[in-house]
Amino acid sequence: MQEYDWQKELERNITSAEGLAASGLIAEREVEEYSAIIEKYPLNITRYYQKLIKKNDYNDPIFKMCVASPSELTMGGSVDVSGEAENTVEEGLQHKYNNTLLVLSTNVCAMYCRHCFRKRMVGLTEEETLSVTDRAVEYVKEHPEVDNILITGGDAFMNTNRVIETYLKGLCNVEHLKFIRFGTRLPVVLPQRIFGDKQLIEMLAKYRKQKTIYVVTQFNHPRELTAEAEAAINILREIGIHTLNQSVLLAGVNDNADTLVKLFNGLIGLGVSPYYLFQCRPIKGVKGYFTVPFSKGWPIVEETRARLSGVAKRFRFAMSHIKGKMEIIGMTQAGEMLLKQHQAKDEVNLNKIFMVPVNDNTYWLPDNIEYNIL
After folding, report:
1. What's domain 88-318's superfamily in CATH?
2. Calpha distance 138→68 (Å, rounded)
3. What is the mean pLDDT of the segment spanning 143-155?
4. Do 45 and 16 touch, CB atoms closer than 8 A?
5. Per-residue pLDDT reduced to its tens digit, 345-355
6. Residue 32: count of CB within 10 angstroms of its CB
7. CA gap 94, 85 in Å, rounded
8. b/e burial code for range 337-347 (CB count within 10 A of at least 16 → b)
9. pTM for this entry
């Protein structure tokens, strides 16, 4: 296996409006306008992902997911629609659901997705990250109800191998912990980090024998399913790592059944299980640009499922609401959306089925939603 210097490769990323113009992604006359956007919402595009973009097409789905847009400055939205701040028990640790701990291990990503719901995050140095790592392990040990952990960020695999191994070494010794998940988009935006890093693969293979490990990634468009992405997925499969996919329903990217069918079938072909399709969170810089109203999104999901095999149609259409993860399971003729409380912050609501009235402009549900429980 040829060793790959992924950290050096990141130094070649496009991070400025001038870089976008030099790469032919925007016109020189637009540099000043795009610089103002990037000052508020930073830009970061890997050279690998840049090659997937159709040039001279500002409506290209790949372009939209990685290149800044003037729409980011004109739309409304909230900073945090899912209640992450109120579920933070310590710096970097969120304990919203009883048996799950979520760790924001870093704010660093190989690429800054324009639909990201954590645009608010501030960075950490490696030493600061290691302090969070040690505390996360101790927190799990202190809470026997926690049987799984999601290490995310940012991007969990943007941590150094030293940091990743610190997590694995500590967590694999916790008996009541059943499995470990790493949230990463590197199979999509820099798959070479995975199939080109022998040390990372050997480390994952070692600890996989002690605990079940999942890689949770996010492919949103079939053009992201490249030969390089397949190589990354294949090497994870070879060492016994399960790969799951959480897509986001994005306007102008995958908000049609043709695209989603091709995406989900492609994922199944690679051995990746598509287990969530998320409603896009209407945060600042995203609302109105990427968000799809429920009234449009649900028919797209229904048509997609109808065209998929049983294996590919297992995904849940869901939203990460402040009250918990809600599965969207239908729409009535009266314009009410049928939901199930798939996960709940208040366990009294767990698995409850309820209806909420929506209209053509409903992209999200209010924090103080009143349950019309069936």
Report:
1. Aldolase class I (3.20.20.70)
2. 39
3. 95
4. no
5. 788 888 989 99
6. 9
7. 8
8. bbbbbbbbbee
9. 0.94
